[in-house]
Amino acid sequence: MAELAELAATAGGELIGEGLQKTESLNPATFIGKGKAAEFADFCQRQNVDTVIFDDDLSPAQSRNLEKIFNCKVLDRTSLILDIFAQRARTREGKLQIELAQLQHLLPRLTKYWGHLSRQTGGIGMRGGEGESQLESDRRKVSERIDKISRDLDTVRRQRATQRVGRQRNNWPLASIVGYTNSGKSTLLNALTGADVLVKDILFATLDPTTRRLKLPTNQNVLLTDTVGFIRKLPHGLVEAFKATLEEVVQADLLLHVVDVSHPQAEEQIAAVNAVLAEIGAGGKPTLMVFNKMDLPHDQGALNRLQERHPHAVAISAVTGEGVASLLAEVGTQLRPKREFLELRVPHEQSAVIARLHQVGQVISRNYRGPTARFKARIPPHYHDEFAPYIVREAQAAS
Ligand SMILES: Nc1nc2c(ncn2[C@@H]2O[C@H](COP(=O)(O)OP(=O)(O)OP(=O)(O)O)[C@@H](O)[C@H]2O)c(=O)[nH]1
Ligand SMILES: [Mg+2]
After folding, report:
1. Residue 15 region, left (φ>0) first, then alpha (ψ -120 to 50), else beta?
2. How sure is the predictor about 236, in pLDDT bands with cuts at 50, 70 and 90?
3. Strand partners, 259
4. Which of 56-65, 130-139, 264-273, 357-366 tops mean pLDDT?
5. d(CA 7, CA 37)
6. pLDDT over 80 (residue 167)
7. Ligand 1: does its nearest atom lie under 6 Å from the Cβ of 229?
8. Residues 249/280, Cβ–Cβ less than 8 Å
9. Ligand 2: distance of its center to the CA of 284 in Å?
10. Which residues surround ligand 2, an ion (CB under 5 A)?
11. How far, in Å, CA of 360 to CA of 383, rounded?
12. d(CA 307, ligand 1 centre) in Å
């Protein structure tokens, strides 16, 4: 509930009150029980509340029914997070991704309260993009808008893929900073590379990925990417929408998983991050745990437990610089097994294998003529087994 309050404040809301219900079974029509709903409705009436936010996701019917009972706008966790993302998006791709996710999530939930409130007060849940006016018009227009966004996104993503190929010509290994929102990922990128990414004590300060070159003390070059933070119950639609942005994470040779050890729920946050990583297909990647904010007061017992569970973790403070030298040394060690340079032949009908190769590897050349498709690609060694049946030649490791 504390996190939900923080999310609401980040979205510009003011917390008036909160309530809980313990229940054996959810009410399919109203999510919470009828009696509890009436009790909350009474509170809302007296306190002049204009928005009620649930920490769980509501079905479209549930939010409509609850709006009738409360006589005000009802949001669920997903709509709230989408709203924050809509405020934060800076790049064209980020904005389009959010608008698409919002249209898809909010469309079946729209009621008079939304239209009314968003026009009058620009309330939470309906900001950003042309979606706001479009959403109020008919469904046909909305689905046209969805089509258009999807096409625009395609174009933007093709451009980004081209930029990525340009970067990869260097053949530098890729490391990606991941972690719960507000754990200090951007602070770490700035500290390591002199980048100038916005750092703020709010949730989801960063949405769009930033990549910088990191030169290790061994002179080895690494491309380091900072990207959007994760959160528990990250809306599935949002994960879908951000898959392209998160390709940097999927392609990385190494993940730096940043944990805020001063947070009382650090362990749960690690689990939430791992769940999202699995969802985007980056589970099981070589991962270096980075215990951050060591300069802040923390529960020593909890930290000991974390260290037992993650014995190779590096403890640092991205702000004071404590532990950063050990972190760089560890990154160097972990990236030593470099990408293998392989020649592969894949039957044309194995399109999933071909797609996967482009996803996890750096494809240097491709030739689709002839009985099998042929590729030269650099692949992180941990994918070797997956592509073993198609490898025709192993060249020496790239540097
Ligand atoms: N005391 C202390 N504060 C830190 C440390 N690292 C980050 N912070 C603070 O934590 C807050 C969040 O830092 P960010 O770098 O923006 O965190 P992030 O993980 O990029 O967050 P999002 O982009 O919102 O997901 C800021 O107020 C930072 O100054 C640290 O090692 N020690
Ligand atoms: Mg950030």
Report:
1. beta
2. confident
3. 291
4. 264-273
5. 23
6. no
7. yes
8. yes
9. 23
10. 185-186, 205-206
11. 8
12. 21
Q: For ligand 1, say whether the CB of 187 is within 6 Å of any of its atoms.
A: yes
Is the pLDDT score of 276 beyond 70?
A: yes
End-to-end CA distance of the chain: 49
Position 187 scores a pLDDT of 97
Q: Is the CB of 227 under 6 A from ligand 1?
A: no
Of all protein residues, the one whose alpha carbon is nearest to atom 32 of ligand 1 is: 293
Whether 304 has a pLDDT exceeding 70, the answer reads yes
Residue 187 CA: nearest ligand 1 atom is 15
Q: How far apart (Å, rounded) are the C-alpha atoms in residues 99 and 86?
A: 7
Residue whose Cα lies nearest atom 3 of ligand 1: it is 293
**33 CA → ligand 1 middle, Å:** 39
The alpha helices in the chain, defined as continuous H runs, are 2-10, 34-47, 60-70, 77-88, 92-106, 112-121, 131-136, 139-168, 185-193, 236-241, 247-251, 266-279, 300-309, 324-334, 351-360, 384-387
C-alpha 230 – ligand 2 centre gap (Å)? 10
Sign of CA dihedral 340, 346, 351, 353: negative
Secondary structure letter of residue 385 according to DSSP: H
d(CA 90, CA 208): 7
Q: Phi and psi at residue 365, in whole multiples of 5°?
A: -150, 155
Mutating to test ligand 1, I would choose from 199, 224, 262 the residue with most ligand atoms within 8 A of its C-beta, which is 199
Comparison of pLDDT for 10 and 336, the residue scoring more: 10
CA 73/CA 113 separation, integer angstroms:
5
| Residue among 187, 224, 317 to mutate when testing ligand 1 (max atoms within 8 A of CB) | 187
